[in-house]
Sequence to fold (194 residues):
Amino acid sequence: MARVGLTAERLVAAAAELADEVGFDQVGISALARRFGVRDASLYSHVRSLQDLRTRLALYAGAELIDRIAAAVAGRAGKEALTAFAGAYRDYALRHPGRYAATQIRIDQALVAGSPALRRTAEITYGMLRAYGLHEPDLTDAVRLLRSTFHGYCVLESAGGFGADRDVRASWDKAVDALHITLEHWPRESDGNG
Fold:
């Protein structure tokens, strides 16, 4: 019998905790049901499937991440905003590895379009980059550069992939400085008006 008060929101929050404890790939219906002391079938009145649970977890974690980034970049522009953005991103990825992994899954584009958190992510990220004078298609290219740099660095760092004696944080700071210089001197694509 399901516990009173079991909701999709509680399940997703518990899945987020579980993801950080055991890894995103280990989050499953059975593991979550055990956490609540119920049978697997009890969860299906709140989530349709494992994929539905993982998608909800991805959206939940994405909202958490952008809330932290938004708070960090508020009132900042240029290098200050980039540094704050990068710091909030790295902090979340390292403190919440399972939740962070959830933010990397591919989500159906219809859900992306309907997600206020994902729209907010785009608004904040693109807004920060517009301060560098970027416009499309350069904005999309710059977003891809930032995401791949931040993601790659965080994944390598969390896996212990940096073995040199150099302080990992010092290297991170240099990488962010290099990104700032790159953004200031972005090789702009001609918009056809020049």
Q: What stands out?
A: Residues 50-73 form the longest helix (24 residues). The mean pLDDT is 92. The radius of gyration is 19 Å.
